[in-house]
Amino acid sequence: VSQVIINVSDVGADARSAFVHQLSYASDAIEGIEKSRSEIVITVSDDAVDAVRERAQALLGKLVAETREIPTTVWFESAPDADYPAEDVFPEMLARDWVVEFTPGLIGVGGPFQSLVDRFEAGMMRWAGEHDAVEYTYPDLVSIESLKRVHYLEGFPAHVVFTTRLRKNLDAIHEFASTIAHDDSCLSDTYLAQPSHTLKTAVCLHVYDHFQDRTIDLDRPLYITTKGRCKRDESVNMRTAERLLDFLMREFVFIGREDWVLKQRMDLMERAREIVEQLGLRARIVSAGDPFYSEDDALKDTEQTRDPQKYELLAYLPATDSEIAIGSFNFHGEFLAQTFNIHSQTGEPVYTGCVGFGMERCIYAFVSQVGIQGALDALGRA
Ligand SMILES: [Zn+2]
Hints:
Layout: E1 2-7, H1 13-23, E2 30-35, E3 39-44, H2 49-66, E4 74-78, H3 90-95, E5 99-103, E6 106-109, H4 111-130, E7 134-136, E8 141-143, H5 144-149, H6 152-155, E9 162-163, H7 170-179, E10 197-199, H8 205-210, E11 215-216, E12 222-231, E13 246-256, H9 258-279, E14 283-287, H10 300-303, E15 310-317, E16 322-333, H11 335-339, E17 343-344, E18 351-358, H12 359-378
Parallel strand pairs: 7-12, 11-17
Antiparallel strand pairs: 1-3, 2-3, 4-14, 5-6, 8-10, 9-10, 12-13, 13-18, 14-15, 15-16, 16-18
Helix pairs in contact: 1-2, 4-12
The structure holds zinc ion.
Residues 202, 204, 251, 330, 354, 356 line the site of zinc ion.
């Protein structure tokens, strides 16, 4: 393998992150992408070096020209003076069986890692209890129709993991059954049906579908919480517990008047800040672009509101001197309520928002900052 190095020192942060994201799907020849502030190092098979360099440079040029760099507003920042572990804690977590890695992006967790997840979950369920939140458990599969309505498939098609089944044809099913043990070529559309569902990419999607065509009493707005496993294919960017193909997410969803929805979002931003401060972590809450649904005419109204559509909770990863988003605080304006025809008794507009936390990332960022022993101490274990 060889390396292709692309200089990005003059490239804005939004274009740079779009570049790393899109590059990961650009070619099968790309085996890895390492990023620093000034350059992107692409590991690539020898025979594809020139083609990948050319494609990467063209992609970067296009993104620099197209990307509207959105200035970031820092809502909260905590940077305590601490001695952080210099090494990535992931190998040690693997060695202790806190984490098992099947392939990059597919992990299982247990032991102290699981205990930390449970503890964080319990804290979030206390928040939910204070708001009389209603908890729902939804399926892992979401219909392609629903995803199309929020324009997810146009915005992030490469993230999506499609599901399929065998075609309803007894001869083909028998043929498949007698072939699969020795020949994978039957995993093709000769035997597999056209997908009608995907695995869900966010756990809040079912909530809007659930309340589709319903009338909401705005004096009794909806505060819902749900948890589930999301799937996002991040290609060669999947590594450690930082970017996973399959991860656990807890979300809170609000459906009501604009000021009420914004207040609930702000309340959870305050809660997140309290936790960061209590634990003495290094993290920031900043405004961000990139809502989970893509640009649409209906969105233009909300773009003009004074409140950013999205804030992210970014945690510091000392080993790589980088940050990961471990939570997001989203305001969708009227877009999703209109899309799913959720309306009010009085005809007043209905607004929605959601707040989500990626559980494995939260715990990984925590252990990355406090170290293995710090995590055990936090659990009260020797
Ligand atoms: Zn959401």
